[in-house]
Amino acid sequence: MKLTPATLLFLTCLLLSAPGQAHKRWFMPTDFTLSDAETVTVDFTASNNIFYVDTGMPLAIVTLANPAGEQLALANPAEGARRSSFDVNVDADGTYRIAAGGPPMYFVSYQLPDQTETQHARGSLDKLKADLPEDASAVKFVESHSLIEAYVTLGAGTVPAPPRDNTGLKLLIKDYHPNELYSDETAQFSFTLNGKPAAGLAVVVQGDGSRYRDIQQEQTYETDTSGTVTVTWPGPGRYLIEASLQETLETGEIAERYYTYYLTLEVMPP
């Protein structure tokens, strides 16, 4: 499927919103771990209150890999106004990787002599530069990378098939499997940026039910020099892990580069 102009505009609004105002994006499988083969239905949506469906996300950016790393088609895909969904036929032992990402997106802002408002455009970097008016000033190019993930495991957890490349912000699964977490144990999450440890990364952990709380109850962490944070769970339940990084570049044509990462997971009682 190709991304429609409406879809691209929607993604633009999501990716360029201020961090405190941006919708969170997430997958929500009906099951994270299974003991027998089964069909799992996955919701894909964006919302301010996590795990409360609000705006459906485009399925064209979703990829699905089985434990052997083979790419699978989404079963029964449906895009709705409030949520998008699809089925995963989980019939092979190990961990399936569900992801939404793709190539970076580019945006430009600039001023025109006869305009008081800042002008904005999006598209490929080459096209943005080609279409830039000659009298534009205060030109600012922005590059944005986003990755959203969830994992479903049948039987024992295995190391999921890695992404097709190591560019951008990625979760490195090594000592702690995202589908083998318990509320009485801490867990470590390690991140890489373009294949190297992502030190100084802001990581936010938030549990289900924010719609019914006066405060968001977010836990905030920062990765160490190895790109790792150690998380303590308030209790069992479903959680969203959000990692983000903004780079201000002193040289080159890109002024700022944004990275965001979202992972949905389930923490079980002891």
Q: What can you see in these coordinates?
A:
This protein is mainly beta and 270 residues long. The protein has 2 domains: 5-104 and 143-267, Immunoglobulin-like, CATH 2.60.40; 105-142, no CATH class. The chain is built from 2 helices and 20 strands. β7 and β8 (84-90) form a beta hairpin. The longest helix has 12 residues, at 5-16. The radius of gyration is 19 Å and the shape is globular. Mean pLDDT is 88; it is low at 1-21.
User: In CATH terms, what is the architecture of the largest domain?
Assistant: Sandwich
Q: Can you give the mean pLDDT?
A: 88
Overall shape: globular
Order of helices and strands: HEEEEEEEEEEEHEEEEEEEEE
Number of strands: 20
Q: Main beta sheet: strand number and arrangement?
A: 11 strands, mixed
For CATH, the homologous superfamily of the largest domain is named as Macroglobulin (MG2) domain
As for the number of domains, it is 2
Helix content: under 10%
Our estimate of the beta-strand percent is over 45%
- Tell me, what is the CATH class of the largest domain? Mainly Beta
Low-confidence stretches: 1-21
Task: Write the CATH fold name of the largest domain.
Answer: Immunoglobulin-like
Secondary structure category: mainly beta
Query: Could you tell me the radius of gyration in angstroms?
Result: 19 Å
Q: Roughly how many Å apart are the termini? A: 43 Å
| Total helical segments | 2
